[in-house]
Amino acid sequence: DPLTYDSPHTKTFLLMQAHFSHLPLPNADYLTDTKSVLDQSIRILQAMIDVVAERGWLATTLRVQQIMQSVIQARWYDDPIVLTLPNVETYNYTVFNKIRLKFPFLTLPVLKETCFKNYEAMAGPLRDEFSEPEIELIYRVICDMPTVNIEISLGGYYKTSELVRPVNQPPKRDDWIEVHSDQEYTLIINLHRLGPKKFESIHCPKFPKGKDEGWFLTLGSVSNGELLALKRVAYRGNRSTQQLCFRTPVKTGRVIYTLYLMSDGYLGLDQQYDIQVDVTGPLENFSESDAYNQLPMGLPNK
């Protein structure tokens, strides 16, 4: 469109596409402009997440989080996931298909589990395309990627008692947790990051600034596209306990909520868990203020 040819929005759009596709830029001025665009884009994306989360738009929130991952990793969100590894490009990434995996699909967690403490399981096939120093760098980046285990429980009042009930993962077909309608409940998430206590920056060589590891906890209902709760998580140690508060629907019946653990800088490390609840009638003759006053110790507050 000749009317938008000189627009800064058009220039930003093209620079972002070049960033995602690893396209060469014609001169140093464009490199400087790209660094400025990338720096400002993170703040804009964070603001977008706040706005769409306030509106309760689940799909849009998840998509913006994926765009943030793409900006940090300099890759399209639907690119083959191994393209985020060092020295891996579109012309040589297929060599990863020669690695004998423990699972049917190639993902970064599967790749880490396969080659962790077993360098040759990955290095052997990759020697067809990469030098030994390049393979060692790929191996180091894979081993440094975070592995996060999650335990989920549901806290809140059922009948006349305050209960904290575990949420089994993966849930069975008949594994439904009874809750009351139009009532506040708290999802308690225990995060355990495996590995050493030192947390280095995310591997993102194409991003102009260093990026510390961070996560989004996003709770929503896929059936109606509603986002119920969102929280940012930054690690201060190997373990962390987080809470997401939400209100059950007025209508009774079975509902499946989905909890997403989304990285704010890595592509391909996201996790999701289903929470199956059976919404029964309202909590009779028991107000929320009464429930709060009768809670002796409260739920965990970290």
Tags for this entry?
302 residues, Sec63 N-terminal domain-like fold, Immunoglobulin-like, 4-stranded antiparallel beta sheet, 7 helices, disordered C terminus
Describe this structure in words.
The protein is α+β, with helices and mostly antiparallel strands. The chain folds into three domains: 8-73, Sec63 N-terminal domain-like fold (Orthogonal Bundle), CATH 1.10.3380; 81-144, no CATH class; 148-280, C2 domain (Immunoglobulin-like), CATH 2.60.40. Helix content is 31%, strand content 27%. The protein contains seven helices and nine strands. The protein has helices spanning 8-21, 28-55, 58-73, 108-115, 119-126, 132-144, 288-294, and strands at residues 147-158, 161-167, 177-180, 184-194, 214-221, 226-234, 239-247, 253-263, 271-280. The protein has a five-stranded mixed β-sheet, with helices on one face. A hairpin with a 7-residue loop joins β8 (253-263) and β9 (271-280). The protein is globular and about 70 Å long. The termini are far apart. 23% of the residues are buried.
Write a brief structural summary:
With 302 residues, the protein is an alpha+beta fold. The protein is built from 7 helices and 9 strands. Helix 2 packs antiparallel against helix 3 (58-73).
